[in-house]
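Translate sequence into structure tokens.
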Amino acid sequence: MAAIHKISGDFYEDSFALIALHSSLEDYAMAYALNLYLKSNLSRTAIDLDLSQKISFPIFEWRDRINDRYWTLLPNNSNAEEQVDQSGLFRNEPALTLHHLVPEHKDVDYFLKIERDDSDMDDELVRSILSIPRVVTAYTIEANMLKSKNNLIF
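Result follows.
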């Protein structure tokens, strides 16, 4: 009789830092500001992160080959257009529904995910991000405590 081996969902442990950003900047402007202040090189990917047919999030990424890190900037909010049967003045207008990448942090505008092996740079990085003029606040989030952590693994 052959042995059956099963791999649990927790087997794949991805080590990454997750920084929450609060800002009124558009996604392209946030990527530009991070590039300017952090000396990074984030650029928009050709393919968005699709959670469903109607819900997608733009991705900005940068592979830092010198420090062996992979940076990803993701907006937490996405508007999906839905047709709703309504009567009255706005009956032919589509309705917009707001969806969140990480629903337990609805107030966060962006997430900066940095895949790396060390964690010595988090405090210095947050201080650098806070020096960006239109960033209201930035702080690290413990990714292991998130219920929707799988939305950040792609």
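Note: The chain has a mean pLDDT of 81.
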